[in-house]
Amino acid sequence: MSTPKASPARRRELRRPVPRRRSPWREALRDRSLFWAAAFATILTVVGAVVAGFGQSSDRHFPGQILGEPAFARVDFSLVNPSEVDFEKQRARRAQPEVYAANRDLAQRLRLTLNEAGELAFLDDATAAERFGVYGFDPAARVAVARLYGADGNPSEWTARVDAFLKELFQVYILPEGDLARLRGDAPSPPPIEVIPLDAPAGAEQRLTVQLSACIEVGDLTRIRDELGFATLNLPSGTQEFVTQLVIAQLTRPLYLPDTANTRALRAAAAAAVEVRPSQHDRGELLAEALVPLTPVEVRLLDEERLAFQNARPQLARLVDRGGLFASMALVAVGLWVYVVSYAPRIRRNPMRGAALTGLLLLCQLAAVLAAAIWPSFTYGAATFPVLLASMTLAIAYDQRFAIAVGALLVLMLMLTLALPATTALVMLVGVAAAAVQLREVRRRSKIVIVGLVCAAAMSLAALAVAPLERPLVGSGARPQLEILLDLGVNVLAPIAASAFATGLFVQGMLPVVERAFNITTAMTLKELNDASHPLLQQLAQDAPGTYRHSLAIADIAESAAEAIGADGLLCRVGAMYHDIGKMNKPDYFIENQGGGPNRHRNLSPAMSLLIIVGHVKDGAEMAREFGLPPVLRHFIESHHGTTLVEYFFHAAKKQTQEQDRPDPSEFEFRYPGPKPEFKEAGILLLCDGIEAAARALDDPTPIRLEQLVHSIATKRLLDGQFDACDLTLRDLARVEKAVTKTLCSIYHSRIKYPAGNEAGKANGKSTVAPGAAGTAPRSTVSA
Fold first, then answer.
1. Taking the alpha carbons of 136, 139, 140, 144 in that order, is the dihedral positive or negative?
2. pLDDT in tens, 713-735
3. How far apart are CA 26 and CA 442, in angstroms?
4. Cα distance between residue 601 and residue 588, in whole Å
5. Is residue 82 a contact partner of residue 300, using CB atoms and an 8 Å limit?
6. Is the pLDDT of residue 401 over 60?
7. Strand 173-175 and strand 279-281: pairing?
8. 286: which strand partners?
9. What is the C-alpha to C-alpha distance for residues 161 and 242, in angstroms, rounded to an integer?
10. Does residue 135 sit in helix, strand or coil?
11. Stretch 271-290: mean pLDDT, rounded?
């Protein structure tokens, strides 16, 4: 028999030279995950260094703070003491007199009233007494006024007398009631006031200085009457008493009113004229003592000294400092992404996860800087909140080891950013560990709040333990120890505990956002999806009851198998409950839902039956998207058959082609489209799905036969490459086989049969039925 010639394509393939091995550096440059890691590390370095520079330049001293060591001036500097300047300005303001202005409205009203009184010259005694009798009218007053008018009736003489009287009257300084007592105060020699006279031009600076002893309050009628007696001397003798009564009736308001605008302008000018004299401070001068609460003046001194020290440094030194800051931040960023590339494949393969991680760290750093700048006394809390927030979020989204590693690197970032001491870093590391250790899984909403409380207690104890390294807890000299302990409690322990507890509450409220941002599903969400009242599960139980019972059985088997190897048993259970929801579209084409009725595939070709069977995977994935199931559950649906062979219909098609004398069908055409399981829980479900269906088809499911069945199917799936994409090891597979066999034996355990009759038992006087034995329930013979 001659050997067939190789095709030209095959010959070219054989002649193709073996490619040379590329250098590792070239392979690294072609790796997109390394490119994204380098990009995110660069972003973290640049943005983190800028934020850290802002954090180091902000002031963080506050009144009441207790320093562990005395503070000395490192450079000569001058400082304008704001409190002294404010005191001098205030004293200059108080030294300026208040300004009062003549009540021009009252003057005009008095002028009109007195001019109207000139009508006395044209009235007889009876009419004048009727109109002006209330003011003490005397007939001699009418005669005196008429004498001024003369024969021609010209009122100019009376008007001139009235104007002269008003000028004399407004030399009596009548002020509002109560102003004299306010102006005098407790001073033995009260300052004078300044008045703007009635005849001063509008807008002019003409003011008169008047002593308070020359002023009268509007209610002092005795002194007012005396002063009016002098003012009316220029009037005819018969009209003096009449005019006095007439004016007193109109003096319900003072002659001079406070002029607040002029007073404010006068005092502002005096305050502006105060000379500012900065105080000089020499290098080595003691600015603040240790173990003594800082005063506002000392806080100002420390902040000004720090600015002066920074400005006094050469430009080259400042550039070196910034370069060191960038280098330190670069070390943290590179260390983070080396760890991510080495031990976090989920982030390495997905740039969006890398962007979320980078953004989370930068937001935490920025939040700490802003909080410390706004509330300097809350610096410890400002550092605690973002560190615990990142640690809790990453522990929920990924795993505990990753959360501890990233949390420790974030602590280093905040140490560089806020110039925190090493003792504070130790306290925050305790919080990171306490948060991550407790968050292996979150099945109750109260769990995160409890984690916050535990972190608060752990960090408070750690702060107490390291406090003596930062400050002495016992005062020296006459300084009481209580003051130091109070500062420790108020400025250290209280912010740490409050921030830890607040972080637990915040993460609990933000948990849905965390799930969406990091594309994860927490145990609480899985528990909600595992509820039998979920609309999708209710619909599955109604439309495909056999599939629903099949899913329940697989859920029990898969959960025990996952827990045997330390995987997520709850995730396995929920994935098993939803993996076959696609069968609801055509439930009668699956044998577990036929209930002993006719087989719908009997009149279909193997190829058509294959499309229906394989189609339930695609239908299930679409249904999961429609109901908003998490992506991890969609993967269970898509991968629970992997790329396994649909053996029944493949052999049926093969038999059909042999009968028709046609070539055998390709095995590839009768395989599920995949994908293969990508994590342990999905691989366990694939294995349990096939085992449960095969176990239900066994005639006599003894433990030995079940063990053999489990091992044969596991080996078959292993050799078929179905576990290549997930990290199930051979040791894990052996433990899964053992757990699955144990669960199957508990489901299909042997039962004691009741005897056909109890005649023999009656003959012997004993019952042959074991007490408490259960009847043999009919076992289902359908297969998946």
1. positive
2. 999 999 989 998 888 999 999 99
3. 43
4. 10
5. yes
6. yes
7. unpaired
8. 72
9. 14
10. helix
11. 74
